[in-house]
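Backbone-to-sequence.
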């Protein structure tokens, strides 16, 4: 599976869970420390808003604090759909993966940025499903693809606030379980 396919599938997985949130579930807790369902969706909406800007060539300074507020408003689903559509459109632009982008840590390749976004979408799809009692299974090919990326990078992320410490899983666990455990979630 190529990166653009993986990103689209991860976005679809998260989108499916957002559409399943019942009105009374926005306040539920999530596997993400101190985040409610609303906070989790707000985090992904903010990421999608940033992606559109960064892929258009903006620096973090140019974007500034434009998205440092509640981006969900009165209709979180619509906010998600609009932000996700704009981000996906930006990723589908010709040569989107071949240019450098400005992120908070400096310049990185757009492909690396897309891997980070894809990982976040896939893992948070699981988090959201766990929180609202939806189907937690993500596409097996996506789980395998993201797991391979995470395995190559997890040591570099050690000690950062990006993910909790790995949670042990059984030796014969499937790729999704290994991915979730590696990123500090209890399967």
């Amino acid at each position: 599976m190529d990166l653009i396919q993986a990103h689209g599938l991860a976005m679809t997985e998260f989108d499916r869970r957002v559409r399943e949130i019942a009105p009374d579930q926005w306040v539920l807790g999530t596997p993400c420390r101190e985040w409610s369902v609303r906070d989790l969706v707000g985090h992904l909406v903010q990421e999608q808003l940033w992606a559109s800007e960064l892929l258009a060539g903006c620096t973090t300074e140019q974007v500034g604090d434009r998205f440092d507020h509640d981006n969900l408003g009165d209709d979180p689903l619509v906010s998600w759909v609009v932000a996700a559509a704009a981000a996906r459109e930006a990723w589908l632009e010709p040569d989107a993966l071949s240019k450098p982008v400005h992120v908070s840590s400096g310049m990185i390749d757009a492909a690396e940025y897309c891997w980070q976004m894809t990982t976040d979408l896939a893992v948070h799809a699981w988090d959201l499903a766990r929180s609202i009692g939806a189907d937690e299974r993500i596409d097996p090919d996506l789980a395998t693809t993201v797991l391979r990326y995470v395995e190559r990078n997890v040591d570099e992320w050690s000690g950062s606030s990006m993910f909790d410490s790995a949670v042990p899983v059984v030796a014969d666990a499937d790729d999704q379980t290994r991915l979730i455990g590696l990123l500090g979630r209890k399967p």
